[in-house]
Amino acid sequence: xxxxxxxxxxxxxxxxxxxxxxxxxxxxxxxxxxxxxxxxxxxxxxxxxxxxxxxxxxxxxxxxxxxxxxxxxxxxxxxxxxxxxxxxxxxxxxxxxxxxxxxxxxxxxxxxxxxxxxxxxxxxxxxxxxxxxxxxxxxxxxxxxxxxxxxxxxxxxxxxxxxxxxxxxxxxxxxxxxxxxxxxxxxxxxxxxxxxxxxxxxxxxxxxxxxxxxxxxxxxxxxxxxxxxxxxxxxxxxxxxxxxxxxxxxxxxxxxxxxxxxxxxxxxxxxxxxxxxxxxxxxxxxxxxxxxxxxxxxxxxxxxxxxxxxxxxxxxxxxxxxxxxxxxxxxxxxxxxxxxxxxxxxxxxxxxxxxxxxxxxxxxxxxxxxxxxxxxxxxxxxxxxxxxxxxxxxxxxxx
Length: 399
Known about the structure:
Strand order of the largest sheet: 5-6-7-8-9-10-11-12
Number of helices: 15
Number of strands: 15
CATH architecture of the largest domain: Alpha-Beta Barrel
Order of helices and strands: EEEEEHHHHEHEHEHEHEHEHHEHHHEHEE
CATH superfamily of the largest domain: Metal-dependent hydrolases
């Protein structure tokens, strides 16, 4: 039975999931983590451990592996020229069409399945090297029924071969196909796409925005997702206020993501709904967008999540430590709060919290060894990878 001694252990365990406060999330000093096969058997203070210790990690922190619950993998190709254009003053809306989501759809369509997977594999490796032990994959770059089904199959193939645990979300309403109205596309999504792709997927997502879909479209998709017994996710209030957050809470969504322009009503709704307020700080930074009202969300009692939003257009970031560091700097997240938002809460969003997201006996031994004796070192040094090693199922994947 392997065991590690460490200066600091952060379990991220909570009696409430999703957790709404890090108040009881205190690091354990002079601790031990032990596991048998893939399963944790002990996570606690050294004086409560009656076994041997295989390795001492002096000056190190052990924490749960990061759970990245919002990515747009698989995709093919980057859009760095669009970033340059935004730096010169063009907006995301200005670029939508010739660039943006439709451009990524064209890039995906122009690549073979093998080319797409070959492009994505190094990103999964990069994520693992930065401590991500579980993640979400999204569709949404198909923009036709056939292409969306292909995207779902590619996502499932990538999930099956990834070293990390990976779930697949059908982002069935991402952009309006050129040949259809929004209403016609949503009708096709509900009648054909969701039933056809349901066996490949673990959730359904909708992008509610003035350049995309409406709350009424979200409501129709939510009904179809429920019929397919798939949980709901929502891209909410990113570019402007839309009422999507309130709708996400009312419809029982697992998360409302972005929230840069969430209304006071949306904040109050997240304070009482199970839905996690999923924060995507790298996207906020890259777009120069206003920050979500994190202080108000916290005060309302919302459960917070943090993810990379890894995508080729607005957040080409694969590192959860980088997303956490940006979130602490831009949103004033507290370090322990950010760890909870990057582990247990997103595990709940993905439906994996029964086995991932915290270091507790019976859960899988997915954890990271971090340099430094306190978790606050991670956001303190943005740009530095603090991950000494990543363990997935008790096996070191990086060193």
